[in-house]
Design brief:
Elements (H helix, E strand, L loop, with lengths): L10 E2 L5 E2 L2 H12 L4 H8 L4 H15 L1 H35 L3
Antiparallel strand pairs: 1-2
Helix pairs in contact: 1-3
Length: 103
């Protein structure tokens, strides 16, 4: 699932701030949606912080309409459920290891 670094055609404005192309932002957000962590993307692309990446994601989802917002909410719910189930699994593994020693 390794993807190459998006090419940037960023420019520095009069305030010294970089401006990124729409394509660059979309590729960065796609990396986030593909499962890469925000900190790893920020480091890899040389962005100022994760807030910038999350703002781009929010803007792109907002532009995509209500369906994208609903899907994004559902993905968040499923990720939270997955995390909970993984924690439960880990607890059960530990309990099995503890009670399995008694036999």
């Amino acid at each position: 699932m390794s993807k190459s670094k998006p090419s940037t055609t960023s420019t520095a404005s009069s305030q010294g701030r970089r401006q990124f192309t729409k394509e660059f932002k979309e590729q960065a957000v796609q990396m986030l949606l593909d499962g890469h962590t925000a900190p790893s993307i920020v480091e890899r692309l040389g962005l100022s912080g994760t807030n910038l990446l999350y703002r781009w994601r929010r803007e792109l989802i907002g532009q995509s309409g209500k369906t994208a917002e609903v899907l994004d909410d559902r993905v968040r719910q499923l990720e939270a459920e997955l995390k909970r189930v993984q924690q439960e699994r880990d607890i059960l593994k530990k309990a099995l290891a503890i009670f399995g020693r008694d036999g």
